[in-house]
């Protein structure tokens, strides 16, 4: 049995009410300033990738461009469509934005036992912590999806409704894989408390111990935040603008704010669970004893978040948008099975290690089980391919009736074929390349004559 450690949360809950307010304002300000910077940084990086200049008018080096965009959106005309459910229509942006900030309540910006001085009071660099802090983050992230769904439904329009439904399916698909990747961290840390998870990464970060969980979470967090190449709920080429098509002015700005705050939130969670949290990187922590004390942990935490935000920007500037069926296939047929198999391997290794098995025997048992499963799956694929070829040969031997042929225009509009059906051959114009070569040869001979 895996023994669970008792979380030490005695450092929290001792602050006076005004200090709690100050720390809450700090969390809000940290998220807002990071969002303002990340918007400018995204436009700068994408412009650099595309050999453009980028924003360079508002403020030094264009650093105030996102602030100018926010003021511009607030001064635009606020239009409410006639067929909308006005109460839900106004409530949806608020529901999308507020839960994104709530997750920062349990994010550690520094060690709990290294208290800093704020107006003469000693306090940890974290608002609060819970024995189930990671589950609290998952819960608040799930509530934020309701804002997108309600926005699509309350607009009274077709395209926003489709965008809201896509967002629902996207959240269900990718949050399962995200939760399973968290479970591997829980097995190693013996805790769901964010401060305790960071404390257990003192010697080795979980990105090295659990690389598959980290990669699954990286893909899932891009899908959770509706960012390219997974921005299907607001695909301009298909849904005009998606769930926010009928929104303008400050309501549209709140949806944009919620998207970027969610990016910061999932980056902070990835930093906390896999990248050592507030701990200094390896070269710095070896020769500098005070790197993880005082206000320095806030610097390392911020740098790690900015690196993960760069990954978001990098993906948007390089990858095209996926098709919706490819997106769902990746979530259900790749991420979830891979994360479940990886969790079983991690649980097996931890159970064997708790029974005091040495590393060689653990590797032999786990590696032998994986090899056996791979051989069984290979044999199953071989027999399945033989059966498919036999069925295909039997189908070709028989005569296909006119009623069995697939007609893509049967309903009056083109539809894709079902599994097992094939499209009829497309008539193509005969290539005229040989004739052109012949005329060119004749012309050359004539010129030579």
UniProtKB/TrEMBL annotation:
Region of interest (Disordered), residue spans: 391-449
The annotated regions of Basic and acidic residues compositional bias extend over 432-449
- Could you say which EC number(s) this protein's record lists? 7.1.1.-
> Cell inner membrane: is it a keyword of this entry?
no
Q: What class of enzyme is it?
A: translocase
Whether Transmembrane counts among this entry's keywords is yes
- Report the transmembrane regions from the record: 17-41, 87-110, 130-151, 172-191, 203-222, 260-278, 298-318, 330-350, 362-383
Reaction catalyzed: a quinone + NADH + 5 H(+)(in) = a quinol + NAD(+) + 4 H(+)(out)
Query: PANTHER family from the entry?
Result: NADH DEHYDROGENASE SUBUNIT 1 (PTHR11432), NADH-UBIQUINONE OXIDOREDUCTASE CHAIN 1 (PTHR11432:SF3)
Provide the family line.
Answer: Belongs to the complex I subunit 1 family.
Q: What is this protein called?
A: NADH-quinone oxidoreductase subunit H
> What organism is recorded for this protein?
Streptantibioticus parmotrematis
Phylogenetic placement of the source organism: Bacteria, Bacillati, Actinomycetota, Actinomycetes, Kitasatosporales
């Amino acid at each position: 049995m895996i023994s669970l450690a008792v979380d030490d949360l005695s450092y929290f809950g001792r602050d006076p009410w005004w200090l709690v307010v100050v720390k809450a304002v700090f969390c809000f300000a940290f998220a807002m300033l990071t969002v303002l910077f990340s918007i400018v940084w995204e436009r700068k990086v994408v412009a650099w990738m595309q050999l453009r200049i980028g924003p360079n008018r508002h403020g030094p080096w264009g650093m105030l461009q996102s602030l100018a965009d926010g003021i511009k959106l607030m001064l635009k005309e606020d239009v409410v469509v006639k067929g909308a459910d006005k109460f839900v229509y106004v409530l949806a942006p608020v529901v999308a934005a507020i839960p994104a900030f709530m997750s920062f309540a349990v994010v550690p910006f520094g060690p709990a036992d290294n208290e800093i001085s704020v107006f003469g009071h000693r306090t940890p660099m974290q608002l609060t912590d819970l024995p189930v802090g990671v589950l609290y983050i998952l819960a608040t992230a799930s509530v934020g999806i309701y804002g997108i769904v309600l926005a699509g439904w309350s607009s009274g329009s077709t395209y926003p409704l489709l965008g809201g439904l896509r967002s629902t399916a996207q959240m269900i698909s990718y949050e399962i894989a995200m939760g399973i990747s968290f479970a591997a961290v829980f097995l190693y840390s013996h805790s769901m408390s964010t401060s305790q998870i960071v404390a257990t990464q003192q010697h080795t970060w979980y990105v090295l111990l659990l690389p598959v969980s980290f990669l699954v979470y990286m893909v899932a967090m891009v899908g959770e935040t509706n960012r390219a190449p997974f921005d299907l709920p607001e695909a301009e080429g298909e849904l005009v603008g998606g769930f926010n098509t009928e929104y303008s002015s400050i309501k549209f700005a709140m949806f944009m704010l919620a998207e970027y705050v969610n990016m910061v939130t999932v980056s902070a969670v990835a930093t906390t669970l896999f990248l050592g949290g507030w701990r200094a990187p390896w070269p710095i922590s070896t020769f500098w004893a005070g790197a993880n004390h005082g206000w320095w942990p806030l610097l390392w935490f911020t740098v790690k978040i900015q690196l993960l935000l760069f990954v978001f920007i990098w993906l948007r500037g390089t990858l095209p948008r996926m098709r919706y069926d490819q997106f769902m296939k990746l979530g259900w047929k790749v991420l979830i099975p891979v994360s479940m198999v990886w969790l079983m391997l991690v649980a097996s290794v931890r159970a064997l290690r708790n029974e005091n098995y040495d590393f060689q025997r653990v590797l032999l048992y786990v590696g032998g089980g994986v090899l056996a499963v791979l051989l069984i799956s290979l044999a199953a694929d071989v027999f399945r391919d033989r059966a498919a070829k036999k069925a295909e040969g039997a189908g070709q031997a028989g005569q296909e009736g006119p009623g069995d042929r697939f007609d893509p225009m049967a309903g009056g509009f083109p539809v894709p074929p079902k599994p097992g059906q094939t499209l009829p051959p497309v008539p193509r114009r005969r290539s005229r390349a040989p004739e052109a070569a012949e005329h060119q040869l004749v012309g050359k001979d004539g010129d030579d004559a």
